[in-house]
Amino acid sequence: MVSDGDSKVHTRLFETQPYGPDEEIQKEDCINHVGKRLGAALRNLVSDSSKRELIRLYSLDVTDEDVIDISVSYDGSWLTRGHKAPIGIGCVIDVVTGLVIDGHVCSLHCHTCAQSGEFVRRETPHRCERWMQELIASGECTINFQGLSGLMEVQATEVLWSRSAQRHKLRYTTMVSNGDSKKAHTRLLETQP
């Protein structure tokens, strides 16, 4: 932050609350919004243009059907710190170009299920199971992960590696990552997607 020397401005910025009076509801909305938007943004971000850019930067003479071997960097992150994060993300980045190749969001939380589901359970418990099945079938439920938050990074790795050749015509031959991706790396060696 660049300061103009006015300490009142500095103090005001740090006293501002990110959530209003209905803090818990707004946090839930934020979590749901981030999950949906981030998932959609990642799907749109990594399109054929990423592969075309890689081909151009590597000066490769390949067809659209050829699978390209590349080295990637991988890391995962979570919406919140701690072992109960409701949303996690894994990203694959080309080592040479820095292009984001692919990403996957893992979510333990669905705002619709949390808000509407509680009402349905309370008001019409006999319809709750059918309502949940319909919600999942419609694609509106954003829950796509079951398990411990710490394993989201591992799950994202499996998803990203398993679809790389088919979706992007890329094969990740080398993975560069930090120490907390050790479980993900071990799982990749075990499953060999």
Q: State the major sheet.
A: 4 strands, mixed
Query: Cα-atom Rg, whole angstroms?
Result: 21 Å
Give, in order, the helices and strands.
Answer: HHHEEEHHHEH
Count of beta strands: 4
What key attributes describe this structure?
Mutator-like transposase domain-containing protein; disordered N terminus; 2 domains; 193 residues; alpha+beta; Mutator_transp_dom
Topology:
Elements: H1 7-15, H2 23-45, H3 48-58, E1 68-78, E2 87-94, E3 100-107, H4 111-123, H5 128-138, H6 152-168, E4 170-176, H7 182-191
Parallel strand pairs: 1-4
Antiparallel strand pairs: 1-2, 2-3
Describe the model.
The chain is α+β, with helices and mostly antiparallel strands. Strand 2 and strand 3 (100-107) form a beta hairpin. It has two domains: 21-108 and 145-191, no CATH class; 110-142, no CATH class. The chain is elongated. The termini are far apart. The protein has a four-stranded mixed beta sheet with strand order 3-2-1-4. The longest helix has 23 residues, at 23-45. The protein contains seven helices and four strands. The model is unreliable at 1-25 (pLDDT under 50).
